[in-house]
Amino acid sequence: MTRRTVREVLFTGVGGQGIQIVSKALAMAAVAEGNDVLLVPRYGGGMRGGKTNAELTVGRGPLRALPVSTAAWSGFVMDQAYWETIRPNLADGALVVVNSSLFHLPVDVPDAKVFSVPAGETAAELGSRMSTGFVLLGAFVTLTGLVSVESVVDAMRQLVPAYRTQHVAANQRAIEAGAASVPALAAPAWSDLAGVR
Description:
- This protein has helices at residues 19-32, 119-125, 132-144, 149-159, 168-180; strands at residues 6-14, 36-43, 51-59, 72-77, 90-99, 113-117.
- The chain is α/β, with parallel strands linked by helices.
- A six-stranded mixed β-sheet has the order 2-3-1-4-5-6, covered by helices on one side.
- Helix 2 (119-125) crosses helix 3 and helix 4 runs antiparallel to helix 5.
């Protein structure tokens, strides 16, 4: 796969799993690190249990179009329920990071680089199942270097509303546990990170 200065991340999950907050945290972290960012959340009217997707485009330089990717660089998969809503839009050789606690399907993307992370079990071991999405996000950013773990933690702290600040410490532990569960830069987002570990 040719290295570009734009990276697209397609997120999918079920409402209530944190897809919207983790995609926004990744977007905010990318902006904080000086990247151009476009984020399009996609979800139905139900709060819990329905399809929830997001599409994030991160560029090192100006972005000139809305993020409607038909050959995305990566997939972030919390649940298999709506996998088919993003799978056809992943490029051959795409990075696919899955929550193996809930994803048990073949990835079926030619030459995909698949990383399975037991995010649900990890969050449960930490005592906070609500932080499962942050476990997977910590793994994703560590694998890719798209942004730093520290920038994601800072973004999460900004995003958690005042009436939910009791979750900040658990979310940070989840991000850090996800980061510790995978090899750093095993699938680098940027060519200047290749070979750096």
